[in-house]
Amino acid sequence: MSIYDFKVKAQDGSEVALSDYKGKVLLIVNTATGCGFTPQYEGLQDLYEKYHDKGLEILDFPCNQFGNQAPGSDEEITDFCQSRYGVTFPQFKKIEVNGENEEPLYTFLKSQKKGIMGDRIKWNFTKFLVDRNGNVVERFASAVTPEKIDQKIAVLLS
Known about the structure:
This protein is α+β, with helices and mostly antiparallel strands. The chain has four helices and six strands.
């Protein structure tokens, strides 16, 4: 199984094949709009603007599993992110990242890189970095800011 075997739902409900991102460096993040880490959207957008033309894609998966911190509809979440943080990277439908209804992509990501809680996501803004060949190379905890990932992305893009 490869990351490119998965399909996810875009914010508008259409199906997106992750194979569309072959050859790109991916930063996959579970997000929330009412979280103490929500200001990381600004850093994520900065990374996107800095590296998108060089091959970076940031894939944003809102998740309401942690403290009910993403309670809005998919449209409300997108509106918030665009108006407050100028987000232009792809945002997908709200998902679950743990439990019996977790998104299969996240089952795969967690199997590739364990975290402090093993194969469970601890909180919003957990980040997975994927290289151009589809390998999950690193997992970052919520408190790791996008700025601290910058150099790792630069290396994968070079």
